[in-house]
Design goal:
Shape: globular
Protein name: Methyltransferase domain-containing protein
Largest sheet: 8 strands, mixed
CATH topology: Rossmann fold
Pfam families: Methyltransf_25
Distance between the termini: 28 Å
Structural class: alpha/beta
Organism: Methanosarcina siciliae T4/M
InterPro entries: CFA/CMAS (IPR050723), Methyltransf_25 (IPR041698), SAM-dependent_MTases_sf (IPR029063)
Bound molecules: S-adenosylmethionine
């Protein structure tokens, strides 16, 4: 096999599509549509201030910096960044995330944050108030055409582009890999990981710096039934037979800690970054 004949952008598209079809053809952003999941995400992120602090030092931004955050979620990074920088634009398509980000910005008294409520692939660079010193996307690469997505990021950045993405199977993917055949009669297909992303960048002539990271991931529920209700929604559990399978699985992986029910694991991530003079 000639590795140079592989179209890695097509590999990304394929894995992205197969992953979504396992999640019932939802668009990546629609998984984040509800206000409830946005609040839960922000609360979880606030319990891990080290991650936010690390991103700030990674990005190398300061009071004069203009920053673009692609797939900003509930503003986990965009809102605190805005209080440090001259300007932040946050692109975020999910309505629940945008609502929570606006509230978070207001609570923090942040006024230099511009929120653009669209998918990255639907954005015309001319509609943003670019250029930006740094463009970054943190665990938000839910774009079918990753090559076009990265090209657009390069166009808008004057100094640096930084991407955070996943390596290997995350704990939450492992739970789905375990459960999907019994729940839905088919294998769970994971989305594309950083190996594919690296090849796409490489074929674009971008040879990124890389740093491997390990992050702990924890979901906490007040009781067993709350966990069941949560995963019934997330895993599209509709019948009694499916619920029985889910309950059995959760009773084998949930741990009771201090009266709460906890699911946890470690996930491997990677930071890829490059100076824009590498972009074609
Ligand atoms: C895991 S959250 C990460 C939020 C934030 N970047 C952080 O690191 O805390 C992923 C976010 O990416 C957004 N997203 C997914 N696909 C996207 C797309 N095609 N364009 C823009 N944002 C997208 C989702 O709506 C979601 O809010």
């Amino acid at each position: 096999m000639d590795i140079h004949e592989i179209d890695w952008n097509e590999v990304w598209k394929d894995l992205h599509e197969q992953n979504l079809s396992r999640r019932r053809k939802e668009e990546c952003a629609s998984i984040w549509e509800s206000r409830e999941s946005a609040l839960e995400f922000l609360e979880r992120s606030n319990k891990n201030p080290q991650r936010v602090a690390k991103v700030f030092s990674d990005l190398g931004v300061g009071p004069a910096s203009r920053v673009l955050d692609v797939g900003a979620g509930p503003g986990t990074l965009a809102v605190p960044l805005a209080s440090l920088c001259a300007h932040v634009t946050a692109v975020e398509p999910a309505a629940g995330m945008v609502e929570v980000m606006k509230e978070f910005a207001q609570k923090e008294g942040v006024e230099n944050l511009e929120i653009v409520s669209k998918r990255w692939e639907d954005i015309d660079p001319a509609e943003l108030s670019g250029p930006y010193d740094v463009v970054f996307a943190s665990y938000s690469l839910g774009m079918p055409d990753i090559r076009a997505a990265v090209e657009k990021m390069c166009k808008l950045a004057t100094k640096r582009v930084c991407l955070y993405w996943f390596l290997g199977s995350s704990p939450w993917e492992q739970w789905m890999i375990d459960l999907w055949p019994a729940l839905h009669g088919q294998e769970y297909r994971s989305g594309p990981k950083a190996d594919v992303l690296f090849h796409v960048l490489y074929d674009m002539g971008i040879y990124p710096n890389m740093e491997t990271l390990q992050l702990s991931y924890t979901r906490t529920f007040p009781d067993f039934d709350a966990a069941v209700e949560n995963f019934k929604r997330e895993y599209h559990v509709e019948t009694d037979a499916q619920e029985k399978i889910l309950r059995e699985y959760l009773s084998s992986v949930l741990k009771e800690e201090g009266g709460e029910f906890v699911l946890s694991g470690n996930s491997m991530r990677v930071k890829l970054w490059w100076e824009v003079d590498q972009c074609a």
